[in-house]
Design goal:
Helix content is about 30%, strand content about 25%. By secondary structure, it is α+β, with helices and mostly antiparallel strands. A 7-stranded mixed beta sheet has the order 1-2-3-4-5-7-6. The longest helix is centred in the middle third of the chain and has 15 residues. The protein is globular, with a radius of gyration of 15 Å. The termini are far apart.
């Protein structure tokens, strides 16, 4: 059965929030673990869906993961500038990894960016240890943009997010 990518439905917000939060926690991506402030952001899919497009990956009835697509800046953008779309909070459940869901979600974001009038580039931030995600991005033609690397928590020196972009 193929993977289907489509906009998240309200009934999927809770389960997708759990998948996203668990993925970040299990992979050690939250510097403060269960007490990390970002955990609440990862779980709050309804908030994301109100400000951007949240997509889910499904195989049959199984929810595999999701991503937030920010078409042209807006409140959910971290680094996107004019003419840029942004990918945020890509997560696939541990049980579903290696089955193509992550790549399908990223491809869907690229397709959406190409369909967005005036969009010339898609950008994203990632952590140094997200090697599987880096391989997906690079396989799809994204290139590193070290000049855009940034720290989301400026008072902590050791948190730097790597950035990638794909010119459309």
């Amino acid at each position: 059965m193929d993977i289907v990518i489509r906009p998240a439905e309200p009934g999927e917000y809770g389960p997708l929030g759990d998948i996203t939060a668990h993925a970040y926690l299990q992979d050690g991506l939250l510097d403060f673990g269960e007490s990390d402030e970002y955990l609440g952001e990862l779980k709050d899919v309804a908030k994301r869906a109100a400000a951007a497009e949240v997509l889910v990956a499904l195989r049959g009835d199984e929810l595999l993961g999701g991503v937030t697509f920010v078409p042209s800046g807006g409140p959910m953008a971290d680094i996107a500038g004019p003419g840029e779309a942004e990918i945020r909070m890509l997560a696939v459940s541990r049980a579903a990894r290696g089955r193509g869901a992550g790549e399908a979600l990223v491809r869907s974001c690229v397709d959406r960016a190409r369909a967005t009038e005036g969009c010339v580039r898609i950008v994203l931030s990632t952590q140094r240890t997200m090697h599987s995600a880096h391989r997906i991005y690079e396989r799809l033609g994204f290139v590193r943009t070290p000049e855009r690397d940034w720290n989301p928590v400026p008072h902590l020196d050791d948190i730097t997010l790597l950035t990638y972009e794909l010119t459309l």
